[in-house]
Each structure stands twice: as structure tokens, then as C-alpha cells.
Design brief:
Subcellular location: Secreted
Order of helices and strands: EEEHEEEEEEH
Shape: globular
Strand content: 25-35%
Radius of gyration: 15 Å
Distance between the termini: 22 Å
GO biological process, one term: positive regulation of brown fat cell differentiation
Protein name: Meteorin-like protein
Strand order of the largest sheet: 6-7-5-4-8-9
Structural class: alpha+beta
InterPro entries: Meteorin-like (IPR051998)
Number of domains: 1
Number of strands: 9
Organism: Alosa alosa
Number of helices: 2
CATH topology: OB fold (Dihydrolipoamide Acetyltransferase, E2P)
Helix content: 10-25%
């Protein structure tokens, strides 16, 4: 979970399950993550399946194909539902951009991927990835903030 400092954009940076730093990237603080789940244009639990870096000359950053198992919020239709009903497990898919200077972990848990809290913003009609901690890390910080009464909002994490 990182922020790109130079341009004010945000993104994911994970390597082997550890948070590392790269040029222009820094980890999001717990407070930033908790505010992001409450105020971002989108927030959900899911994984990053592919990173499209075909446009290497494109300074905008790579497109990420993501799949969500839980959608907490979206201000516009970034993610589309696969259907399902109240009893069936629903999923959502969509594409978001990652900042160009922040490497992104994707794939299954064995390759550094797994479940993340994915948050972000809409900029000029494009969805941009923001703070994105591993979901288990988010749950820990969320529960600690809930216990201390410092959560900026409540969401259903079950």
C-alpha cells in the first residue's frame, strides 16, 4: 500500500508480502487507509489479476484488471457485477490504472498477490488505484481503530 509522492497519485507496492519503497512511492499510513475506505470514489476487497504494460511509453501507468469479492462503494460504474443474488457469491470486475512509478503485485498468494482492500479515485474519467493494503492488514488496523473508537466510518467486513 503506497502513495506516489511526486505527482500526488497513489498505488500498490508489495514484494514478497513486505512493504518496500521505490522511487516516488511511500506506504500509506493506517489513517490514510481508514480514510480511503470511507471517502474514496471506490473501495472493495479483491485481487489484481493482470497488469497491462503494453503501453510502456505511456507515462500514465499500467492498467490493472481486478476482480472484487466485496464492493463497499463506487461513485460511478467502475466495476460490473457478475450477477448473483443475496445467497449467491457475487463478484465484480473492472480496470483501474496504477501510478507509473509504483510496482504492483498481482496473481495468487504464492506469487505475491492475494486479497487486498482496493481503494482509489476517478480522474478525468479513469479509475486510479489508491491505498491498497493486503486485506488481512486492513482488517487488523480497522478492528484496532474500531476498538479505540477512532474509525472515521463503519463498513461490514464480514
Amino acid at each position: 500500500m503506497v502513495r506516489e509522492e511526486e505527482e500526488g497519485a497513489e498505488g500498490v507496492l508489495e514484494e514478497g508480502g513486505e512493504h518496500v519503497t521505490a522511487a516516488h512511492c511511500r506506504p500509506c499510513s493506517d489513517e490514510e487507509v481508514l480514510m480511503a475506505v470511507c471517502t474514496s470514489d471506490f473501495a472493495g476487497r479483491g485481487s489484481i489479476h493482470t497488469v497491462d504494460q503494453q503501453q510502456e511509453e505511456d507515462a500514465s501507468g499500467p492498467w490493472l484488471q481486478v476482480s472484487l469479492t466485496r464492493l463497499y462503494r463506487q461513485k460511478t460504474r467502475i466495476f460490473t457485477s457478475s450477477g448473483g443474488n443475496a445467497r449467491a457469491r457475487r463478484s465484480w470486475t473492472g480496470r483501474v490504472r496504477a501510478p507509473p512509478h509504483c510496482p504492483v503485485a498481482h496473481g495468487n498468494a504464492d506469487t505475491g498477490g492475494g486479497d487486498y482492500l482496493l481503494t482509489g479515485a476517478l480522474r478525468l474519467g479513469e479509475a486510479w488505484l489508491g491505498c491498497a493494503p493486503r486485506y488481512q492488514d486492513f482488517l487488523k488496523m480497522y478492528r484496532e481503530a474500531q476498538a479505540s473508537g477512532t474509525n472515521p466510518c463503519s463498513i461490514d467486513t464480514d
